[in-house]
Amino acid sequence: MGAMQQPRVGFLSNSHARAGVLSSPDPAPFEVINADGRADLVLVCEHAGTAIPKQLADLGLPPAELRRHIAYDIGAEGVARLLAAQLDAPLFLQPYSRLVVDCNRPFNAPDCIPEVSDGTLVPGNLGVSELDRRQRYAEIHAPFHREVMLLLDRRAAEGSPTTLVAVHSFTSRLAGGPERPWQLGVLSNRDASLAERFLATFQRRNPTIISAHNEPYLVDDMGDYTIPVHGEARGLPHMLLEIRNDLIGDAEGQRRWAPLIAETLVDLLTKEPING
Fold this sequence. Notes:
The two termini are about 20 Å apart. The protein has one domain: Aminopeptidase, CATH 3.40.630. The strands form two sheets. Strands 1-3-2-6-9-7-8 form a seven-stranded mixed β-sheet, sandwiched between helices. It is about 30% helix and about 15% strand. The chain has helices at about 65, 75-85, 130-160, 195-205, 225-230, 250-270; strands at about 30-35, 40-45, 90-95, 115, 120, 165-170, 185, 210-215, 240-245. It is of the alpha/beta class. Residues about 1-15 have low confidence and may be disordered.
């Protein structure tokens, strides 16, 4: 696997085996769309879903909280599915809520299993034992990223060029915080080359849309997982997209934004080869 990092926490050993977090009514911890897509792209949407394992009883939260941005990236799944179809790209979707375990955080990040999110206390995450933390990670986080890893390994063995794009959304204002004017953020950390090229092309094509590099977040090793582990460690071209969620909260917004992203990626892939 070369420079690829192993998952930071593996499955529980047999000596610690016990009833799992997931049971038969619960969905699988990943969904793969268009695995054999021919594009030089792999899409990942780590905060796609709102599912919570039945035994966790909605983490003690009322339904309204589970429809907020704290539970998932509103609109990101819809945009990602459209991108996969428009670009003929593989897509990995995480159906479980980021409140159960955040699949874009390493195990030791404080908000991998958050006790508080944007001012909301999460009762089901208070006082979670180390064993329970590891079990959630092992049953939901690890299988998701193992599937991503296996596809990237296969593409590398086949010599298929691969650009990694993570699709996210963000809220226009956090509790007590200022308004966030950006409509699109293009994020990176150690290697900004793809992010900067994408942003320059996007801004040229869409001059009235407020877009910026590394807004409203930065990518780093504790606040992210997909880009550091699957992008940076492998030396793949990569970026993380953040679309403001009030713009993609319904199907109409998703249908408007997906082509803007797709057309910019096609420009880069066809006019400015990204790999090699």
